[in-house]
Amino acid sequence: MKKSIISFALSAILLSQTATLAQAQIQPSNPYATAAELGLMEGFPVPADKQVTKANALQTAPFNRWSYQHMRMFYPSADIPASQKPVDLEHVIDTNLAKQVSVQNAAGETRSFDEYMTETWGDAIVVIKGDRVIFEDYRNGMTANQPHQMMSVTKSFGGLLALMNIHEGQYSESQYVGDIIPELRNSSAFGSATVGQVLDMTNSMDFREDYADPTSGIRTYGAVLGWTEKMEGVDYPTSLYSYLPTLNAEQEHQHGEVFHYQTAKTDVVNWINNRVTQQSFQVDMHDKLWSKLGTEGETYVLLDNNATLVAGGGLNATTENLAKFATMMLNDGRFNGQEVVAKSVIDSIAAGGDKSAYAKGPNASENMPGGEWSYRAQWWVSHTPGHEAFMAIGIHGQWVYIDRERDVAIVKVSSAPESYSKAQELYDLNALRAIVDYVSAN
Q1: Do 142 and 61 sit in the same domain of this protein?
Q2: pLDDT tens, 275-294?
Q3: How far apart are CA 76 and CA 303, in angstroms?
Q4: E strands within 70-147?
Q5: Where is the signal peptide (predicted)?
Q6: Are residues 335 and 426 in the same domain?
Q7: Which of 128, 299, 321, 384 could pair covalently with 80 via S-S, beta carbons 3.0-4.6 A apart?
Q8: Which of 298, 291, 338 is nearest to 319 (CA)?
Q9: Is 101 found in the same domain as 44?
Q10: Quick one: CA dihedral 74, 80, 84, 87, positive or negative?
């Protein structure tokens, strides 16, 4: 059941919606065709079979090849303002990287770097060594300053903001969620769980991410947000804030025993941040991160029909701004001569979470096995010798990969047709590690 995990849960909701017959007729002979090669959104009017709509923008291939660079055209959104003092990253490009790096796919076949990018529907990749961009590759019409849908990478920003607020003494991981959010006191999934348990997703919660079942937790969640149709005769909560208190713990596990990746937990992390700081995610992002990272251009987050942030996966950001963020994380929280994030906060992420809870949970997998992986503050952490790293991951191929041991960070954005496949995940992990190995050796 991996990925009910790395899931921008909302993105999978729309699998339940059937594309129109005209839309379904796009069956390109080249499965890796770009949006331009497919002719998506071209013409006045756009032909019906080339039209990207709200119904197919979020997850339906191949329309996501275009939509992931234009998400705010289909959903409500809010800006995260750029810095008033832009800072340019130094670019010293290693032209040999693409020639020298080869990657094993899931079948064990050796593929060139170019084949890897094509076969994983890569839209862009940026590699950082120290504080310099040493490689970048843009495809499918993507540019360094084009915002891209980041899916569950959003969660990791929320987790980082939480740790920063905790470091500042605004609340603690040992506090009970119900003491901070009184509205959640009667929810057995959250009221008696600690902040740290929800932050690390080890609180017990009965929430099925079964997209085919309209009565499942994730389908109810989507209906509440207005992103999927409501079932007739069902009395739905009117907002996310009235829905979260209805969630309860599962009977099999106590809080803290098992890691289980479930998107609604991220909404509670965000709610705690909002309540304590009295600021929205986007304001906190700007004040604590974006304003200090010399960011430029457009960054935005998606909202639900009540203008509430989609905390599980609403971030849309440029690779240039994400590279500045990754550079800061790589350099112990420092950027452009100032501390942006306390080193102890980043140390906490890199150290990882409860390995035992991770191993006992349903999300440990062959690619990310128990004993070698953990989850900490909405970040995935690899403890594999030689490949220690922490990362933000989103479905359809979004990655922010930080390897402090070898001083390398990588940002990759994609528009893969499947939300998750074991093969694509392994292909990406093999590539990211191969890039790190090459860069650290040169």
Answers
A1: no
A2: 999 999 999 999 999 999 99
A3: 5
A4: 77-79, 90-91, 102-104, 110-112, 122-129, 132-138
A5: 1-24
A6: yes
A7: 299
A8: 298
A9: no
A10: negative
- In-domain check, residue 413: yes
Range of the domain at 301: 79-167+268-441
Amino acid at 160: L
Domain C-terminal end among 218, 240, 261: 261
Q: Are residues 140 and 187 in the same domain?
A: no
In this structure, are 161 and 238 located in the same domain? no
Final residue of a structural domain among 210, 229, 261: 261
Q: For residue range 95-154, list pLDDT tens digits in order.
A: 999 999 999 999 999 999 999 999 999 999 999 999 999 999 999 999 999 999 999 999
The yes-or-no verdict on residue 215 having pLDDT over 60 is yes
Q: pLDDT class for 27, splitting at 50, 70, 90?
A: low
CA pair distance 319, 138, nearest whole angstrom: 10
SS3 49: helix
Cβ–Cβ under 8 Å, residues 334 and 328: yes
Q: Are 336 and 321 in contact (CB under 8 A)?
A: no
Cross-strand partners of 91: 133
pLDDT of residue 226: 78
Distance CA 374, CA 389 (A): 11
Q: How many structural domains compose the chain?
A: 3
Same domain, 241 and 368: no
Phi, psi for residue 302 in degrees, rounded to 5 = -85, 150
Question: Which CATH number characterizes residue 112's domain?
Answer: 3.40.710.10
For residues 195 and 377, the answer to whether their CB atoms sit within 8 Å is no
CATH number, position 196? 1.20.58.710
**Higher per-residue confidence, 210 vs 165:** 165
Task: Note the pLDDT tens digit of each residue in 29-66.
Answer: 899 999 999 999 999 999 999 999 998 998 899 999 99
Query: pLDDT at position 228, please?
Result: 73
Is the residue at 2 inside a domain?
Answer: no
What is the tens place of the pLDDT at every residue in 16-25?
Answer: 443 443 344 5
The span from the CA of 26 to the CA of 1, in Å, is 29
Alpha carbons 276 and 283: distance in angstroms, whole number: 13
